[in-house]
Specification:
This protein is of the alpha/beta class and about 170 residues long. It is about 45% helix and about 10% strand. Helix 5 packs parallel to helix 6. It starts with a helix and ends in a 5-residue tail after the last helix.
């Protein structure tokens, strides 16, 4: 089925809900504008079963409202201090801690494990890994979220983690 211009524009929207349930207002908004994608933060997801159920409902709503187009159900789940779940998910170390082992195979396996859990909970896009080069040690925003201050190490570990997640069906 051909999408209208309005539906195509809606497919470009990445919507963040205010709660962990689809309210009537959210449903109406998503249907009216054919919103095609969702991002979750700590206010939307807490545990595995709740995330899985919510993501299944969102997928059904979006596909039903938007001509069967598969949505991106996303999160920024990096490990370390950027961890969106309170229970039922493995806590992974920060990128800096992962790169300290200097083992690309290990980094890829961590990406696979992360991807496997996220995919099982209904996610298909993760806004990770962080591939910023931490060129300013005083930068408190990036800090341990980076694989380090060496561009080559950051690129190698970032690519390894992305390969792992993508092997499990989650776009990095």
């Amino acid at each position: 089925m051909e999408l209208t211009l309005r539906q195509k524009i809606g497919q470009l929207v990445l919507y963040s809900m205010e709660s962990n349930e689809i309210t009537p207002e959210t449903k109406a908004l998503m249907q009216e504008y054919c919103i095609g994608n969702v991002i979750h933060f700590g206010n939307n997801v807490t545990d595995f079963e709740g995330s899985k159920a919510l993501n299944a409902q969102l997928r059904e709503l979006i596909k039903g409202s938007c001509a069967g187009v598969e949505p991106f159900i996303s999160i920024d789940h990096e490990g370390g201090r950027v961890f969106r779940f309170s229970t039922d998910f493995t806590w992974f170390p920060s990128h800096l801690a992962v790169s300290a082992a200097d083992d690309e195979a290990l980094t890829e396996e961590i990406g696979r494990a992360m991807g496997k859990e996220l995919r099982a909970a209904g996610f298909n896009l993760n806004f990770a890994p962080v591939v910023d080069v931490n060129s300013n040690v005083g930068n408190v925003v990036i800090g341990a979220r980076s694989f380090g201050d060496n561009a080559e190490a950051v690129s190698l570990h970032g690519a390894a983690m992305a390969r792992g997640m993508q092997a499990e069906g989650v776009m990095a």
